[in-house]
Design a protein that fits this description.
Blueprint lengths: L17 E5 L2 E4 H15 L5 E4 L4 H13 L3 E4 L5 H11 L3 E5 L12 E5 L19 E7 L7 E6 H15 L6 E4 L6 H14 L2 E4 L5 H9 L4 E4 L1 H11 L6 H9 L2 E4 L6 H11 L4 E6 L3 E5 L13 E2 L4 E5 L13 E6 L6 E2 L3 H7 L6 E9 L5 E6 L4 E4 L2 E4 H9 L4 E11 L3 E10 L8 H11 L8 E4 L19
Parallel strand pairs: 1-10, 3-4, 3-5, 5-6, 9-10, 9-11, 11-12, 12-13, 24-25
Antiparallel strand pairs: 1-2, 7-8, 8-18, 13-14, 14-15, 16-17, 17-19, 19-20, 21-22, 23-24
Length: 485
């Protein structure tokens, strides 16, 4: 089966169906194929391509073109700082960057051939593109670890198809579904689940461009059947529902949706309950990673149990292990999640060492997430094995690269970064700073701006605390568990 079967037959039953909508711009399946195929023909046979992944239809056309051509695509976050972007470009070595005609690209991309994406292009119908091998790389998505620069997770077509088909089974996802979301298109949640998911089913996706509760209500009221979001979005929905003067339309729209799905981080139970009380509908959760795509999920016909991410999806094996890697004798106790199945990545680009560290000899992926299992197989994630991965606003953020950026500031002598609970973001980034001049420390705004410019805005510290010295053990390692507000 092709990865995107609805785009193979531009005269078929889905040809006139809306595939994607961004505000006032809508593309049918026939129009999407007509725009993507000339671009696919241009890049076919070349090396990897970078995609300037704005939340626009141009990004969808670019990614579809790369998939049609069998060329690996590297989605780039347009807010990425120069240092991080330069690393990604050097590491992945794309030959071309695909972008909307009006996009202003940063200097880190200046050496790449630029190809502008035209959503109104009209290529020949039914352009012949052979379906690549299921093991061939489809996307290379960069993910932050706990230390060092981001690593490129190579996602084969097989993994994308397996995950999306497992979600079709779990969520009874069909071509009649209309998905609404406002997720970024440079990572797994927004791009693979939020765009390729509907396209694989022959359904539709309506992207809000920018999240707003008004936009959610509008699109769900006008035919949307599913909503995907991260906890920050659902927290804002819960806050809006608490206002009786403004919540009526939103509550009715949410109540009419077939499925409300939250992912990328745990949705607080308080927000679960507030949304359920106002709408009569419960949000369901799922659990995945860049390297594994989707591992577990609450089924559409299952029990939406707050605090859990459901049971393993079809064809996904999941186990909990002790520190030494042996399976837990008691699944009700806490262990590290390991997964195995067709949903796994191929490995980290140019990092055989990191790939070997991530996988056991018999193919289990070490997630670094700690969990317990309910008697019926529902997974309850309790936190990270390490303390250096922060989940904020739906993003997974490594503390190490933020610390390195802070240490580049002339006013910083020492720095450590931790995460603290935040009712809106899930976790907020906290910087612990020993200033070079205690009498004139750099301000919190100055440090936040410095990090945002070096890395990305969502990686900036929201809180800065000043210390005379960082707590360290006898080996000089910072004891982060001793840092607390």
């Amino acid at each position: 089966m092709p990865l995107l079967p609805a785009l193979q037959d531009t005269a078929g039953p889905t040809a006139a169906r809306e595939a994607v909508r961004f505000g006032g711009l809508s593309l049918t399946y026939a129009q999407l194929a007509a725009a993507a195929d000339p671009l696919a023909a241009r890049i076919a046979g070349g090396g990897r391509v970078a995609v300037w992944a704005t939340a626009t239809p141009e990004t969808v056309v670019a990614v579809v073109a790369a998939l049609r051509a069998g060329v690996p695509a590297i989605p780039l976050n347009p807010k990425t700082g120069e240092r991080e972007l330069a690393h990604i470009v050097a590491d992945s070595a794309p030959s071309t960057v695909l972008a909307a005609a009006g996009d202003v690209l940063p200097p880190a991309l200046a050496a790449l051939e630029r190809v502008d994406v035209d959503t109104a292009a009209a290529g020949p119908a039914g352009s012949p593109f052979a379906e690549p091998s299921p093991e061939s790389p489809a996307l290379i998505v960069y993910t932050s670890g706990t230390t060092g620069p981001p690593k490129g997770a190579v996602l084969p077509r097989r993994a994308i198809a397996a995950s999306l088909d497992a979600l079709e089974d779990a969520w009874q996802w069909t071509g009649d579904d209309v998905l609404v979301h406002a997720l970024p298109l440079f990572h797994v949640h927004g791009l693979i689940l939020g765009v390729l998911g509907p396209l694989r089913r022959g359904g539709s996706v309506r992207h809000l461009g920018r999240f707003s509760t008004e936009g959610v209500a509008r699109e769900l009221e006008s035919g949307g059947t599913m909503l995907f979001g991260v906890p920050t979005m659902y927290h804002r929905i819960a806050e809006a529902l608490a206002d009786p003067s403004a919540s009526g339309g939103l509550a009715a729209a949410l109540a009419g949706a077939r499925l409300l799905v939250s992912g990328s981080a745990a949705l607080p139970v308080h927000d679960h309950e507030r949304i359920a009380a106002a709408t009569g509908r419960r949000v369901i959760e799922r659990y995945g990673m860049t390297e594994t795509l989707m591992n577990t999920g609450v089924r559409a016909d299952g029990e939406p149990r707050p605090g859990t991410v459901g049971a393993p999806l079809r064809d996904v094996e999941l186990r909990l292990v002790e520190e030494d890697g042996t399976p837990l004798a008691d699944p009700a106790s806490i262990g590290e999640i390991q997964v195995r199945g067709p949903n796994l990545f191929t490995g980290y680009l140019n990092r055989p060492d990191a790939t070997a560290d991530a996988l056991t000899a018999d193919g289990w992926f070490r997630t670094g997430d700690m969990a317990t299992l309910d008697p019926d197989g529902y997974v309850r994630i309790v936190g990270r094995k390490a303390t250096d991965l922060i989940k904020s606003g739906g993003y997974k953020i490594g503390a190490g690269e933020i610390e390195n950026a802070l240490l580049d500031h002339p006013g910083v002598r020492e720095a450590a970064v931790t995460g603290e609970p935040d009712p809106d973001l899930g976790e907020r980034i906290v910087a612990w700073v020993v200033p070079a001049d205690p009498a004139a420390p750099p301000s919190a705004d100055e440090l936040a701006g410095h990090v945002a410019a070096q890395l990305s805005p969502h990686k900036r510290p929201r809180t800065v605390r000043y210390l005379d010295a960082l707590p360290r053990n006898d080996l000089g390692k910072i004891m982060k568990r001793s840092l607390h507000g």
